[in-house]
């Protein structure tokens, strides 16, 4: 098991290295992309461009440029934005991480609990009215665009019904740090949490229902029932535990992608300056250092999420302990 985990860690390092190389080549070595022109500004003279290329090492071979860029990005951490002069990239990204983690972490708690409840109840009551009603509600949740649901939530809580007793507690759009005001942090994020979680509750509930129904047809479930074990324990202890493999796989991928910037629409709608919104703004202005940093950051979380999923599998499914 230790050897398998070590092998996975080695794979993570190689994947991150490959992603950093590809991202660097796309943004800095693509024909026609001249970072020095963006640094020097419009109408810069040829002498200024030459000087900028020399100062930033852009006139050196690509392997050397890559090494200098990674050094400035992760070692000295003095790489600055090409658009906002003096704005250091790494501190800016680090400052946006708590916002995204707060948003995605709270929403993840809601969609995991909601998905488990919906999936287990629907799977245990297969073919009944409760099952059909839950699947209809799940389909509605999956079908509603996040940005539309967020705008409707803002319309109700920030405008029309803001002065009513129902939503008078809702603060203005934006992020309140947890360390400064925990209660204000919760109030600012509770509606974005539900908005982001709505899609995933329906999706995870439907996947868990299908997996649970399939698992309840297995031989070991019939054996457990033949031994006289109660139906509730059969469903929760035997069926649910094995059915969680697909559930955990989805969660790892979705959580990593959202933390890496996939929660962009929710952040934009609710005025949260997270990593997704930071990436969006950098793409609009072609701020190459900021784009490079956020891409590598997003890749790290996706790769790390996959590693954590592999570890969790060992505890959920005993069959995974013999793999590797």
Characterize the biggest β-sheet: none
Q: H/E element string?
A: HHHHHHHHHHHHH
Radius of gyration based on Cα positions: 24 Å
Low-confidence stretches: none
- The termini sit apart by 8 Å
Instruction: Please work out how many helical segments DSSP would assign.
Output: 13
Oligomer: single chain
How much β-strand is present in the residues?
under 5%
Which class do the helix and strand fractions yield? mainly alpha
Range of helix content = over 70%
Question: What is the general shape?
Answer: globular
Let me know the number of strands: 0
Report mean pLDDT, rounded to a whole number: 81
Q: In words, what does this structure look like?
A:
This protein is 75% helix and 0% strand. The protein is globular. The protein has helices spanning 2-28, 35-40, 46-55, 62-75, 89-124, 129-143, 146-160, 182-215, 219-226, 231-262, 264-269, 275-285, 288-316. The model has no long low-confidence stretch (mean pLDDT 81).
Structure, briefly:
This protein is mostly helical and 324 residues long. It has helices spanning 2-28, 35-40, 46-55, 62-75, 89-124, 129-143, 146-160, 182-215, 219-226, 231-262, 264-269, 275-285, 288-316. Helix 5 packs antiparallel against helix 6, helix 8 (182-215) packs across helix 10 and helix 9 (219-226) packs antiparallel against helix 10 (231-262).
């Amino acid at each position: 098991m230790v050897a398998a985990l070590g092998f996975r860690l080695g794979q993570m390092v190689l994947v991150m290295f490959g992603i950093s190389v590809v991202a660097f080549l796309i943004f800095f070595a693509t024909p026609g992309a001249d970072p020095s022109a963006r640094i020097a500004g419009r109408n810069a003279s040829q002498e200024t461009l030459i000087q900028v290329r020399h100062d930033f090492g852009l006139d050196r071979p690509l392997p050397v440029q890559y090494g200098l860029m990674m050094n400035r990005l992760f070692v000295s951490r003095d790489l600055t934005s090409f658009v906002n002069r003096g704005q250091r990239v790494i501190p800016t990204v680090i400052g946006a991480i708590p916002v995204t983690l707060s948003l995605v972490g709270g929403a993840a708690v809601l969609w995991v609990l909601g998905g488990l409840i919906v999936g287990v109840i629907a799977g245990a009551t297969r073919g009944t009215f409760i099952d059909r009603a839950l699947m209809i509600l799940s389909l509605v949740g999956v079908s509603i665009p996040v940005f539309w649901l967020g705008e409707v939530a803002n319309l109700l809580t920030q405008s029309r019904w803001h002065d009513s007793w129902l939503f008078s507690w809702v603060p203005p759009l934006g992020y309140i740090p947890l360390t400064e005001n925990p209660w204000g942090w919760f109030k600012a994020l509770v509606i974005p949490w539900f908005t982001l979680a709505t899609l995933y509750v329906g999706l995870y509930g439907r996947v868990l229902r299908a997996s649970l129904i399939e698992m309840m047809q297995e031989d070991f479930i019939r054996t457990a029932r033949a031994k006289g074990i109660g139906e509730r324990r059969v469903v929760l202890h035997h069926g649910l535990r094995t059915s969680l493999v697909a559930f955990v796989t989805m969660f790892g991928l979705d959580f990593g992608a959202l933390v890496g910037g996939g929660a962009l629409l929710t952040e934009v709608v609710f005025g949260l300056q997270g990593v997704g919104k930071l990436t969006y703004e950098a793409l609009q202005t072609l701020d190459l250092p900021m784009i490079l940093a956020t891409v590598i950051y997003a890749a790290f979380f996706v790769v790390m999420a996959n590693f954590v999923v592999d570890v969790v599998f060992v505890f959920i499914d005993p069959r995974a302990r013999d793999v590797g």
